[in-house]
Design a protein that fits this description.
The protein is of the alpha+beta class. The protein is built from four helices and eleven strands. The protein has one domain.
């Protein structure tokens, strides 16, 4: 049951379902959400230039207890916006997580709480499945250039590799009881951890 939920969670977020593009004049944006470790989901918002190059606008790491995002049913994301703004509702593990982002003002809202980003482009959110709910524990900046895969979607793992703080936040040493699920998570974490 746990394995099926985790695989459904991951596959539901892979292209094309996990990425959405919307026109913003000469550019477009793409967003997605997927598991990155036993304790964390990642949500990203990227921007395409008129030359086709892709740049990270925002990345949010949602961390909770091991396997939190595979509990319950009806997992997925919805969102959209207008030029310069983005909003998303993320439903995983029986939780409803809200993200809003104003790219030009560099301001985000996590569960309605304002986060001033300034030059940062990463938000670390902890305790998503606690009684008190999610808490923003920090922001940081990573190099925003994104390598792309053959299908045109961003290699988010390559961005995460650039930050020791992100690698630590993912807690890739967290273990799950199901060995098959753990092997799946280990393969994801191996793409992020320094070699």
């Amino acid at each position: 049951m746990f394995m099926a939920g985790l695989l459904a969670t991951a596959s539901a977020q892979l292209p094309p379902q996990g990425g959405r593009m919307r026109a913003l004049g000469p550019t477009a944006t793409s967003s997605g959400t997927r598991p990155m470790s036993a304790v964390a989901l990642v949500t990203w918002v990227t921007r395409y230039g008129s030359d086709g190059a892709q740049v990270l606008d925002l990345l949010v790491l949602w961390r909770g207890t091991p396997g939190w995002f595979s509990r319950g049913s009806g997992n997925g994301t919805s969102g959209g916006g207008s030029p310069g703004s983005f909003h998303s509702t993320i439903r995983y593990g029986g939780l409803k997580l809200q993200l809003e982002f104003q790219s030009q003002a560099r301001v985000a809202q996590i569960q309605g709480r304002r986060v001033e980003l300034h030059d940062d482009n990463v938000i670390l959110v902890d305790g998503v499945d606690t009684a008190d709910g999610p808490t923003v524990v920090g922001t940081l900046r990573v190099e925003p250039e994104l390598p792309q895969t053959d299908n045109g979607f961003p290699r988010i793992e390559a961005v995460l590799q650039r930050s020791p703080e992100i690698a630590s936040f993912l807690q890739c040493d967290a273990r799950l009881p199901d060995a098959r699920v753990q092997a799946f998570i280990d393969s994801i974490c191996a793409q992020v951890l320094p070699r």
